[in-house]
Amino acid sequence: MIYILTASIAALLLLQASGAIPPSSVGGPMMIALIVFAGALAVAIHEAWTRKRGVFGWILNIVLVFVGAFAAAPIAGFLMVLLLSPFANGSSLAAAGGAVMAISLAGTMAIALLGSWGALQLANRWR
Hints:
Blueprint: H1 2-18, H2 27-50, H3 55-84, H4 93-96, H5 98-126
Helix pairs in contact: 1-2, 1-5, 2-3, 2-5, 3-5
């Protein structure tokens, strides 16, 4: 899990540093969502592979991590805005850019993947 989280955060920060995430359009949030869901899919595949799940287990893992990511991502975004808005110069974290945006992206990714992992752990209690 820690390797998936580190790789996902690194990919997100590399995209942000290269300018591939535009700060003021629809493409920026879509790119962020794509990387978050790719990380969530990696969590599902890793858990299914290491626990030697069957076909139904793989499908259930994929569904669960996406539900967990969909539930945790808005909470993560809210927390990042709440915590980092005093440090932003502009009207939004994306407009502030720099370290504030990087910390926001890393925190959002961490919380979203934690939500995915938490959904899997909750389901593992019932299996």
